[in-house]
Each structure stands twice: as structure tokens, then as C-alpha cells.
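Hi Q.,

Before the meeting this afternoon, I wanted you to have the adenosine-5'-triphosphate prediction in hand. No need to reply - just skim if you have a minute. The sequence and ligand are here:
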Amino acid sequence: MSEPQPVVELRGITKRFPGVVANSDVNLTVNAGEVHAVCGENGAGKSTLMKILYGMQQPDEGTITINGEEIRLRNPQDAIRAGIGMVHQHFMLADNLTVRENVLLGAESLNGIGRKAKARLAELSRQTGLNASPDVLLESLGVADRQRVEIVKVLYRGAKIVILDEPTAVLVPQEVDALFDTVRGMQQQGFTFIFISHKLDEVRAIADTVTVIRRGTTVGTVDPKKISSRELAEMMVGSELPSPETRESTVTDRDVLRVQDLRLNAEGSDRAVLDDISFSLRAGEVLGIAGVEGNGQTELVETIMGMRKAHAGRIELVDAEGNARELTKLGTLARREAGIGYIPEDRTRHGLLLTQPLWANRILGYQTREPVSHGQLLDIAGARKDTARIVEEYDVRTPGIEVPAAALSGGNQQKLVVGRELSGNPVLLIASHPTRGVDVGAQALIWEQIRVARHEGLAVLLVSADLDELIGLSDTIRVMLRGRLVSEADPATVSPQELGSAMTGAEAA
Ligand SMILES: Nc1ncnc2c1ncn2[C@@H]1O[C@H](COP(=O)(O)OP(=O)(O)OP(=O)(O)O)[C@@H](O)[C@H]1O
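Predicted structure with the ligand bound:
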């Protein structure tokens, strides 16, 4: 075998933020043609390191060497010139433009917009397995194809080293396999990948090498095929993990939520994005909704939360005495006050005020309730105290409760939101991707908190793209396809692959 050729060498990278050292003397060597995973707990410093490598942030200390040459990356343009591309978790694409426009816009200087550009786009589409016509609008594509467009866009700009930031979070198992096939194929052609993921089984399936970061610094580089997922997780947290709890059903026969014949039309049209949705949810029950992104799950959750207005149907919350209260016409705050906790799918848009301190975020959505208000008055001391409790109980890694929410890593923001929503003693929890972006330790903690609350009678509507989570937590799973609940799966027996097929319509009723 030939000697490994380092294409990326990060040496002694240190990056400080007020009160936090995000990266401290981090070393990372990535060799040509490998898939190199970077793993670590929430807040370990992965995103910061990738932002430094992509020129979005500058290190306080340390050197960056690309293809043997030490360079300074002042901005992403510098990184792109050096052959580095980044596929972000939230796609940077325009829905109302075609595939071709998305790829070519801003890169006209490379191949123009004529025949040469088209040929290059066709070639890259082939290499990445993108089957869509270059003339279709992006909004008509599914998530997996959009991700391919994002990859094509990065390659079109000349990337040879591609950073994939949690690329599988939104994919079903079959799509993950297809993505990994693409990655392997491109590896053969000399591309190098840096892969950020919390899913350790996937890391072991695709990565040639994994570097583990703990509390801002590198703890080691290992061959993932030679250690178990559990050992890898233990390397990340620096101690042994608790064993997962066994499951037990706590479902009662008391309805908490009833949804009848719910219909929602697309804005400004008669086309239904939700149609004929009926279900009930009982105290102590977790009802999981499976579906490929874009099949109406977001709309269902937002309609139940009063953020969208149903065109037909009825939503009722039932109290412990069996009295039903209609929610259909109420606003979001009133629904929350009626006892609904809400973990939104996009924590930065609907869950947090990023510029505000953590304690002010504790008040968000709870401004009329104890312990953060008394009658008409906010209780700032109460909010501070309860925020400190959440930080402690949910292991939110932060220098303090005065820092703005924006200063927390993504996973730690998520823990704060989950902690807040479970603190209001809800009777119903609407949880959209509750552990998206959190590490395995924090995921186990959040699952445990949900299980404990369910044991005490909480009803949970769980929407998740993480099929292990859906199967592990739910008592019942309904599959959503094109705005309808089409089939049911038994979490005790269904496999992630079977569920994935039902979600894509391959086996739907
Ligand atoms: N802009 C910022 N201002 C202040 N602190 C920051 C900023 N960005 C990151 N940090 C802090 O740096 C540390 C590392 O965060 P980073 O986002 O790199 O972690 P991560 O490993 O990517 O975590 P996650 O898995 O949760 O996304 C965290 O303590 C975070 O709070």
C-alpha cells in the first residue's frame, strides 16, 4: 500500500469564545481519499473546528495545512479555492430555482452558463447519482435528491475535500445506504470526506478513520472497524455509559388529544397538505409519526400548535375528568397554557430567542405561568433559578445562564428547549425531532426524561426522522405519506428498513 498522503493537517488549533475554549490544541490529519469522521459530545467543538477549516471562523492559535501548504483561510471563498467544500445540515439551496440555477448561480466564472456548464453538471450528477433533470424546480425534489444537489454544487466549485455535517439526520435507512454508496464511489475517484455524525453505527459503517474530540481537544484517532459503537461513545464521554432502560408500556385508556378529520390546504390553493387526519392519543402513550420529510408532518404539528389554521376538522384536549375542550380556534399561547409542551423542529426559529440570555429563554412561552411569573408580573429571579436547575438536570454545557442562547452548541440549545418544555408539567408533549443534533449521552438522557414523564401520564406525539428513536420510544407508529396517515406499524416488531419502505410508499397501504 502507498503511504497515506495528508490533505488536511490542523495543528494546535485553539479557538476561544467569551468564557469558553471551544477548541484547545486540536490536531487533525485527514489523508487523501479517506472518509474521516469527527465525533464528540455536544459542545465538544466539532462545528467550531469545521467552521475554521471552511474559513467561517479564524483560529486564535494553530496552523492549517492543505495539500502540504500552510495557508490562512480568511473566508469560505479561500477555503473553496483550496478545494474544500461544505455540505451544511440545513441546505443552502433556493426552492424556487431549478437544479441548474442552484448549482450554477454564483459560479458562472468557472464554466459560464452554456454548453460547458451543462456538460459539467451532467457529469457531476452522474457521479453523485442525482437523477433529477437540471430543469426541475428544487421544491419538487425529495430530501435525498436535494442533498445530492448540495453535493453537486460543492463539487462544481472544485471541492476535493468535502465536509458533510450530519448528512444522514434527514434520511431514511435506504437513502443513507445510497448516500454511502455515492461516497464510496467518489472515494475511488480520489475525493476525501470529513463526516460529522452522532450516529456511531453509521460512523463505523462508512468511516476509515475517526477522530474523537472531547471538551474541545483531540483525545485520539482510531480505526472505527476495530472498536464497538459503545467503546466509541465511551471515548467521547470519557467514562462508561449507563445501559439503556428496558421498555414497558404505560398506555392508559384515557384520551388526552383527539384529532378528527383534520384538513389543511396549501397557502392560497385548494390542494390539501393534510387530509383526513384522525387519531387519538391517550395518557401515558407515545404516538410516533414516521414519514419522509415534506409529507405533512411539519404541517400537522404546526396545526395542532395553532401556528397554522385548519381548513376543516377538530382538535380537542381532554382533561383528567374526561371533559373535552376544543382547541381548533385557539392561538398558540392559549394552547400552551392548556397544557401542551412543544419541542419545535427548528429550535432556532421557533424554540429560542438566540440573542437573549438563557434565563430569558426559560420565560419564552411560559410568560404567564409559575415559576417565571406571578400574575401579571415576570419573576426574573424565579426564571434564573429554574434555568440553573434545567442546566444542571439536563446537562446543558454552558459557562452560565447569562450567555445568549446563540453561544451554545446546537445540541446544548436542544437540551435547554427540551428541559424547558418538560418543566411546565404538560399533559401533552408535541415533540418534533426531540434529539436532533444531540450526542448519544444527551439522547439517552432526553429519552429517559420523556419515559419518566410518560410514566406519570404524559401523552406524547413524537415526530422523528430517527427511526431507532421512533421505534424505541413509541407505543404506536403511524406512517404519514403525502399528507395522510396511511398505515400503522408495531414498534415491537417493525425494523427500520421496513419502516423506511412504508415511509417512501414502497409498502404503504
Ligand atoms: N459563537 C459562539 N460564541 C460563544 N460560544 C460559542 C460560539 N460558538 C460555539 N461556542 C461554544 O464553543 C463550544 C463548542 O461548540 P461547537 O458548536 O463547536 O460544538 P459541537 O461539537 O459542534 O456541538 P454539537 O454536537 O452540539 O453541535 C461550546 O461550548 C459552545 O457553547
